Fold:
Amino acid sequence: MSTLKVNTIRHTGASSDAVTLASDGSCTADITNLPPGNRNLIINGAMQVAQRGTTTTNSGYYTLDRFKMQSGGKDANMTTAQHSLTSSDTGPWAKGFRKSFHITNGDQTSGAGGDDFVEIYQYIEDQNISNSGWDYTSSSSKLTISFWVKSSVSDKFYGFLYTNQAGAGDSKMYSYAIDNGSGGSLAANTWTKITHTVPGDSSLTFNNDNTNGLGFGIIIFNGVNMTTPGHTLNTWTAWDSADKIPDISNTWWNTDDATFEITGVQLEVSDHATEFEHRSYGDELARCQRYFLKRIYTDSIGPYFCQYIDTHRFAHEFFPCTMRTAPSITATFTRSSTAYKTSQDHAKFYTDLAYNSSTQANMSSAEYSAEL
Structure:
């Protein structure tokens, strides 16, 4: 019985696996069903981690880690939540998704104003783009975006990328339609898989550092002061806050309690969408803790102020991972005391409290934020 020896295994990204046999008996196997790890540039794309909480009526970072809901011009607050999916969520459920980022509209009684908006963002570090393998100055090198989306009303939305910090001199933006695949509105109450491929461009620049490199955004609504009828989709252009997307329908904005939800967000260096890279909860949590860390302490666990020297107490908190930068801190204490000196860096927190009792004291909770 003869034996076939495989000399080369090549992961090509082609549509099917193939084995090529050469005249000398050697062969090359093109393997496409072995997904590479760590290809998703989005953190918490399956919406598993919500350290801050599971629901809020505030804009900003308040629920799902790494995702920020931004809004303005509202008559009534919107509610954002980590939403649990069920088997009736046809599409994402079968692909292993159990959570979504869910927004419920309020009653916008004055209608859609020119400066009104609601958007979802995740900001990606410069160095994560620079070291991703994307040749971002070449139009033949691609990023591919994919996600599941559902709206309670039939409407058309837009996706959005921008480089560096919006408004900076070298900022570029790229917009694309979130529609039914034929240019029309999404069907109401129906999960739709969106994929879009983005080419590099010779005008793009990224730094190899921990600053804001690329913003991934979903625009649910922008007022007319941020849109233009002749806006050009699917191309990199100079940042213009008055020309972010084409004019957009106000149906969602003007519908009381309209909902919008998204899950399975993936951004990868590829010219096509691959299956979502599911990561364990622990893996995703560790990635999130680079940007935000929440601690709840008990009497037996936590950074104690155990030393009593000249009416001062001292404690350290060592972070479970190196944070993006020295974080801002919000802390509560078990006893009334005055901060004498507090310092922190990427890896730890230190505090010195003025306290005039020999009774032991400690922090009861703390939040550390190093968000972009």
In short: Residues 85 and 98 are 5 Å apart (CA to CA). Confidence is low (pLDDT under 50) at residues 1-18, 29-34. The chain has three domains: 1-34, 55-288, 292-369. The helical segments are 126-130, 281-288.
